[in-house]
């Protein structure tokens, strides 16, 4: 009996430690990001760092303004959302409300596959197919632009948006829709005015998820966005926060390297805000039900 | 019921329905387009030699055997670290933790961890494992440690879900028979949720196979053929996805890149089927 | 049962850490310039024929990263494809080869020669049309390497541009060749060893890029291949043996085969 209690206790402690470790790891990451990111920001000055328009880390007089990266990340994300959300939402509606079960299952499989494709593959196909296409269609000197990045990102955020919105739409009680039909509304009207509003917190969660994915994406955009630290233009070569870290991490030394950690911190704060928003949306949606 | 709708309402419905089909078409076409294009350009370059040799600069041949091995080593090592940890955390959350608020807090933290982009994990790998822990240089072990943190949320969440599907009656029955908690977990809960845990593990493996940003600076980009597992752990080596990136950007060798991309897509496809099969078995029970 | 397994797993994990901590010395990491890739991979292969027990891994990270890794000791051997700057200290550097940077344009481009001044004009953004350098009336798309690249560092130094105007920044010579081959307006530069026949190579100041012009120094856009080790640190046996091999007679033919000229 005694050994049994000892085993019980050790197992309980072990599992408790496992649970705690996840907290420690997450906070460890946060603390590490802050500790390694703050010094460089202090030295440059927060406003010069965040709003400086010139990034020239290796020049004789280095300049570390990351506004071009921040704006690129923001624009690319907004663009991807503007294209990806309507497509994703419409597909989710199709899957949850319109498609016959067999078709829905097939499209669903396709969406799941789309989610599993490595981001480098997206970037690679974008680089080979999309970049020359953008160059020819818009008659540019160079097709690796913010626009190409937006197109690639909008495909990449589709699976997340579709999955979350579809689940939310499927959870709308049938009575709501039946009541709408009984009042003489068409299927489209019912979906637009009853189902979608009823599932709006879930859909919002899907959109926020998509924003998170687009902001954090690195390897796909690095292949299609041109990689020059310009202030962003739709048809110009750009560099985002993630691209700046991935592109310069390997060779940066000393202060330059510290600045990359600061960029990491900025990205981390962005993601944190996005996740907190997501949590808030989900909580409010949950409370309502 | 068959009343005629006003023109405005018909146009509205028609336009939105049309848009919906267009959207579905785009999503499906993107998938078929990407997969079809990659396989079309890549399958022809996959040969027996390509899969079973290392890249040779002297003979001017390409091969990805080292990278296949590296990928397997990294998956194995990561699972070795992350599975016990993740399953342990999930068991704690689901079976032991009494305070609801603590559980909710941990779940919230895990959600946060899941939302962090992989490039940040790459930075953390460099900062923590290479600089602070004094491991000094990129290696498969550093990569695996970094990936362990990255896949932890996936494993915790899927395990939790699997544990939740075990009916409460099982637990009550076991307690009624006088079983201790650990005995109950070991003999009833874990076996009953094994399929779900396996499904989650496959998901995690998929994540590892597709990962590149977190591995670039932690695991490296080498391609020396190392067959000894322990020796390999200290070697800087690129997984298949990292090598795909290297072939695109460093070598500019697109034929090989398409071949690697095809291999990756086939792996992703197989993993997907794996998850499907597990899910189907779950439904039957 | 499970507990035993848990203990076993934690022991194993601890063992993994220990194993990594004490590097056996036969595992040598090289890190640096992507331009050196072909030469260094050939050398590693040839070396491994006689020393199969030594594992040499090359991490193609770029010259800047190569220098950093040698300074910090995060690699045994760093590789650079540009001369070191005065500020880059703490390493013992040795030139082992000379490489030419080929200037490449689309095969349909009628231009065959550019002077260093014209290159300065193009990459500083003063010249933006091919007609200004004897070509068709068409815009010039400048393609360059990323800031940490040795090719970029060497090229910018030679033509005298401090912060070049790039339409596209790519991370390898191979990627530049591909971009130039698919864009009729483009100009780019890459290690001669990376250039195939998908693009046209220009002469610079009238000098073609050949083994002779590289050896006698008349081709102006050339740069050294350098290997570096951390000053004051003793190299492992494996690394020493490999560095000796690089500078030996045996290596001459291998280096030449990879498209560059050995220097000793």
Short structural description:
The complex is a heterotrimer of chains A (289), B (285) and C (264). By secondary structure, chain B is mostly helical. Chain B has eleven helices and two strands, in the order ααββααααααααα.
Number of domains of chain B: 2
What share of the residues of chain B lie within helices? Answer: over 70%
Rg over alpha carbons of chain B = 24 Å
**What coarse outline of chain B follows from CA principal-axis ratios?**
globular
- Strand neighbour order, sheet with most strands of chain B: 1-2
Poorly predicted residue ranges of chain C = none
Known CATH architecture of the largest domain in chain C: 3-Layer(aba) Sandwich
Number of helices of chain C: 9
The CATH homologous superfamily of the largest domain in chain B is named MetI-like
Biggest sheet details of chain B: 2 strands, antiparallel
- The CATH topology of the largest domain in chain B turns out to be MetI-like fold
Looking at the structure, what is the overall shape of chain C?
Answer: elongated
3D structure, described in words:
The complex is a heterotrimer of chains A (289), B (285) and C (264). Chain A has helices at 2-44, 46-51, 67-98, 101-116, 119-137, 146-156, 158-170, 174-182, 187-198, 200-216, 219-224, 241-248, 254-288; strands at residues 55-56, 63-64. By secondary structure, chain A is mainly α. The longest helix of chain A has 43 residues, at 2-44. The radius of gyration of chain A is 23 Å and the shape is globular. The mean pLDDT of chain A is 90. Chain B folds into two domains: 7-45; 50-284, MetI-like (MetI-like fold). Chain B is globular, with a radius of gyration of 24 Å. In chain B, a hairpin with a 4-residue loop joins strand 1 and strand 2 (61-64). Chain C starts with a helix and ends with a strand. With 264 residues, chain C is an alpha/beta fold. Chain C contains nine helices and twelve strands. In chain C, helix 2 (37-50) crosses helix 9 (249-257). Chain C folds into two domains: 2-97 and 224-262, Periplasmic binding protein-like II (D-Maltodextrin-Binding Protein, domain 2, 3-Layer(aba) Sandwich), CATH 3.40.190; 100-222, Periplasmic binding protein-like II (D-Maltodextrin-Binding Protein, domain 2), CATH 3.40.190.10. In chain C, strands 1, 2, 3, 4, 6, 7, 8, 9, 11 and 12 form a ten-stranded mixed β-sheet that branches. At the A-B interface, helix 1, helix 3, helix 4, helix 5 and helix 9 of A face helix 1, helix 3, helix 4, helix 5 and helix 6 of B.
């Amino acid at each position: 009996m005694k050994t049994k209690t000892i085993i019980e206790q050790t197992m309980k402690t072990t599992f408790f430690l496992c649970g705690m470790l996840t907290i420690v790891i997450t906070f460890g990451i946060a603390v590490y990001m802050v500790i390694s990111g703050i010094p460089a920001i202090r030295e440059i000055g927060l406003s010069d760092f965040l709003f400086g328009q010139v990034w020239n880390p290796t020049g004789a007089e280095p300049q570390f303004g990351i506004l071009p990266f921040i704006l690129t990340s923001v624009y690319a994300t907004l663009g991807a959302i503007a294209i990806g959300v309507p497509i994703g939402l419409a597909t989710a509606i199709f899957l949850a409300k319109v498609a016959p079960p067999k078709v829905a299952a097939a499209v669903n499989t396709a969406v799941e596959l789309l989610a599993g494709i490595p981001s480098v593959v997206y970037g690679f196909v974008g680089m080979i197919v999309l970049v020359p296409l953008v160059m020819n269609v818009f008659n540019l000197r160079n097709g690796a632009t913010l626009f190409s990045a937006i197109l690639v990102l909008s495909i990449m955020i589709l699976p997340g948006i579709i999955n979350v919105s579809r689940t939310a739409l499927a959870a709308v009680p049938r009575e709501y829709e039946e009541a709408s039909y009984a009042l003489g509304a068409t299927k489209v009207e019912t979906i637009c005015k009853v189902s979608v509003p009823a599932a709006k917190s879930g859909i919002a969660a899907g959109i926020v998820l998509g924003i998170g994915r687009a902001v954090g994406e690195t390897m796909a955009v690095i292949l299609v966005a041109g990689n020059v630290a310009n202030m962003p233009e739709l048809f110009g070569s750009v560099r985002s926060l993630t691209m700046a870290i991935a592109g310069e991490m390997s060779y940066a030394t000393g202060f330059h390297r510290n600045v990359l950690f600061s960029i990491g911190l900025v990205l981390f704060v962005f993601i944190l805000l996005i996740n907190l928003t997501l949590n808030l949306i989900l909580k409010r949606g949950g409370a309502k039900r | 019921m068959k009343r005629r709708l006003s023109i405005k309402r018909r146009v509205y419905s028609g336009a939105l329905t049309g848009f919906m089909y267009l959207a579905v078409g785009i999503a499906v076409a993107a998938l078929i387009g990407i997969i079809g294009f990659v396989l079309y350009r890549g399958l022809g370059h996959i040969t027996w030699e390509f899969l079973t040799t290392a890249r040779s600069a002297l003979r001017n041949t390409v091969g990805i055997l080292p990278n296949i091995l590296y990928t397997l080593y990294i998956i194995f090592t990561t699972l070795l670290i992350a599975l016990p940890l993740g399953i342990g955390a999930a068991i704690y959350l689901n079976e032991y933790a009494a305070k609801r608020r603590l559980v909710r807090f941990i779940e919230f933290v895990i959600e946060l961890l899941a939302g962090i982009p992989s490039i940040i994990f790459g930075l953390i790998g460099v900062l923590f494992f290479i600089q602070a822990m004094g491991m000094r240089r990129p290696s498969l072990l550093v990569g695996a440690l970094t990936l362990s943190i990255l896949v932890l949320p996936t494993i915790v969440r899927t395990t939790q879900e699997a544990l939740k599907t075990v009916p409460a009656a099982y637990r009550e029955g076991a307690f009624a028979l006088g079983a201790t908690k650990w005995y109950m977990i070991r003999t009833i809960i874990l076996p009953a949720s094994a399929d779900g845990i396996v499904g989650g593990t496959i998901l995690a493996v998929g994540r590892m196979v597709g990962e590149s940003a977190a591995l670039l600076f932690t695991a490296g980009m080498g391609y020396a053929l190392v067959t000894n597992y322990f020796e390999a752990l200290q070697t800087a080596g690129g997984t298949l996805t990292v090598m795909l990136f290297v072939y695109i950007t460093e070598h500019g060798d697109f034929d090989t890149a398409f071949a690697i991309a095809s291999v990756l897509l086939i792996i992703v496809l197989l993993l997907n089927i794996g998850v499907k099969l597990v899910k189907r078995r779950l439904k039957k029970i | 049962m499970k507990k035993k397994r848990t203990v076993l797993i934690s022991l194993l994990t601890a063992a993994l850490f220990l194993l990594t901590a004490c590097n056996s010395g036969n595992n040598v990491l090289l890190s640096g310039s992507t331009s050196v890739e072909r030469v260094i991979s050939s050398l590693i292969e040839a070396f491994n024929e006689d020393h199969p027990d030594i594992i040499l891994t090359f991490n193609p990270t770029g010259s800047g990263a190569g220098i950093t890794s040698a300074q910090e000791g995060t690699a045994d051997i760093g590789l650079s494809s540009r001369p070191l700057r005065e500020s880059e200290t703490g390493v013992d550097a040795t030139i082992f080869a000379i490489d030419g940077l080929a200037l490449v344009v689309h095969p349909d481009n009628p231009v065959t020669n550019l002077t260093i001044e014209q290159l300065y004009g193009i990459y500083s953004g003063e010249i933006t049309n091919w007609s200004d350098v004897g070509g068709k009336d068409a815009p010039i798309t400048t393609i360059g390497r990323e800031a940490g690249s040795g090719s970029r560092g060497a090229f910018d130094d030679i033509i005298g541009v401090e912060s070049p105007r790039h339409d596209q920044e790519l991370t390898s010579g191979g990627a530049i060749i591909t971009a130039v081959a698919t864009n009729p307006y483009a100009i780019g530069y890459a290690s001669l060893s990376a250039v195939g026949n998908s693009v046209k190579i220009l002469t610079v100041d009238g000098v073609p890029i050949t083994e002779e012009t590289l050896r006698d120094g008349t081709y102006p856009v050339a740069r050294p291949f350098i290997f570096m080790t951390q000053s004051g640190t003793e190299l492992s046996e494996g690394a020493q043996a490999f560095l000796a091999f690089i500078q030996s007679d045996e290596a001459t033919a291998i280096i030449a085969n990879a498209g560059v000229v050995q220097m000793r």
